[in-house]
Amino acid sequence: MANVLKRFNLVVVPWFRIKIIDPLVQILRRGTEPKQLAFSAALGTSLGLFPIVGIPVFFCGFAIAVLGSRCHAPTVMLANFAATPIELSLIIPFLRFGELISGGPHFPLTSDAFKKVLTGQASWEVLHSIFHALLGWLVAAPFIMTLLYILLVPCFTILVRKFSGGSSSPKAPLVSIEIPLKDV
Fold first, then answer.
1. Measuring CA to CA, which residue among 22, 39, 41 is closest to residue 79?
2. Nearest-angstrom CA–CA distance, 15 and 86
3. 34-69: pLDDT as tens digits
4. How far is CA 18 from the centre of its chain?
5. pTM for the predicted model, two decimal places
6. Rounded distance, CA 110 to CA 7, Å?
């Protein structure tokens, strides 16, 4: 057990720091508005929980394109990236929630079911299970996003104040450069 913890500390902790913490600190140092960061993180996380692997990054890109300056693109993508392990762990709960909502048949998660999926014998059952997982996510996502936003606003308010040097206005320049204009 001690070996596992030692290996975890040598591999996972530095990876998490480099891939999640350092980019987050860079975002915070730029002094973006805390409410915009909270909205962007909630959006990226809730879209990142979409139960089909690989699709959330496209949804996040589309949301960034549609929302423009109302969201902070690096925060949306970072939250999407950080939500990936959670996405994988929530596929089955979304599936079961969708089955509950629709009253649909229970998709058996057995080794035989997996064999049927691989051999193509369970195509309609698989399509129904995908539909149920999507339905579960579709119903849960607005609640997840709202709850995350409510929880993240005070967190980002404190973090922006701590890392940005007191300025939380997105309009405040990082460096002031004066360029003399010549008369034409």
1. 41
2. 17
3. 999 999 999 999 999 999 888 999 999 999 999 999
4. 17
5. 0.77
6. 32
